[in-house]
Design a protein that fits this description.
114 residues; alpha/beta; two-stranded antiparallel sheet; 5 strands; elongated
Length: 114
C-alpha cells in the first residue's frame, strides 16, 4: 500500500528509518525523507521524542505515521513499559555475542515480551 513521504506524495515500498543522534539536522532529515527514527539503545527518548514529533508535524506529516524503533535494546519489563508509555510499539533487540545455545536461551527468555 502507499505510504506518506510528504504532503500529497505517496510512496510504495518498505519503510525508511534513519538512525543517528537526536538533533535538529537529523530530525529535519527524518521529517523530510523518512518514515521514522532508529535510535540506538533508546537513551534520551523522553526528551527527544517531543522535539521530533513537533518537527514531524511542522513538516506537515501525520503524527500517526511516525515510527520510532529503538535499536540494540536489552529488554526488561520496565524499559519496555517506558517505551510503550512514549508511544513506541516496536524495538529491535540486542542479541548477545555468544554461541548458539546462549543466543537461544536469550531468545527463549525474551519470548515473554512478544
Amino acid at each position: 500500500p502507499p505510504r506518506e513521504l510528504g504532503p500529497g506524495q505517496p510512496l510504495h515500498g518498505p519503510r525508511t528509518l534513519l538512525g543517528g543522534a537526536a538533533g535538529p539536522k537529523l530530525f529535519a532529515a527524518i521529517a523530510d525523507h523518512a518514515d521514522g527514527w532508529l535510535p540506538i539503545g533508546g537513551g534520551g527518548l523522553t526528551e527527544a521524542l517531543p522535539v521530533l514529533r513537533q518537527v514531524w508535524e511542522t513538516a506537515g506529516r501525520d503524527p500517526k505515521t511516525l515510527h520510532v524503533v529503538p535499536y540494540a535494546v536489552h529488554p526488561n519489563p520496565g524499559k519496555l513499559a517506558h517505551y510503550r508509555d512514549l508511544g513506541i510499539e516496536e524495538v529491535v533487540l540486542q542479541l548477545p555475542s555468544a554461541d548458539e545455545p546462549e543466543i537461544l536461551r536469550a531468545l527463549d527468555t525474551w519470548a515473554q515480551y512478544l
